[in-house]
User: What shape does this take?
Amino acid sequence: MFYPFIESKWQKGKVRVGLPARGHGETVTVEARGLAGFASRFLSQSEKQRLADLAKKDAKPSAGKRKVDIEIEIGPGGKVFLETPQQKWVGENPEIMQVARFAGQEMLAIQKSDDEPEVFELHYLGQSWGTGQNRRSIYAYQI
Assistant: This one.
């Protein structure tokens, strides 16, 4: 009884049809606001399945025909970072500080203070970890 109304709203983009992931049942969800949302609650399972079939038909052509070839060019600055040896710790004073590159990003292990030479912090991607951790724990973060 409400199916034609809901279908017309779906074609206008006012109704969303949720399809289950493969292997996770057959439940189709219908989401809408206002009167369409109220009417969608009265759809039978077969009507929901009809909407799902429409949604699948609508989704397949664009998903099947779309092939995007993207060429990514690395700029001069990026080449320097990526050509630097990766995942290799270096430093003049390894007891105080070491630096390594992971995926072109700098990682820094630095001694927390002179009072506690065994406490290090790990800095990576704008975050820091390891307060109160010993050097062995910092290497565990690396792995």
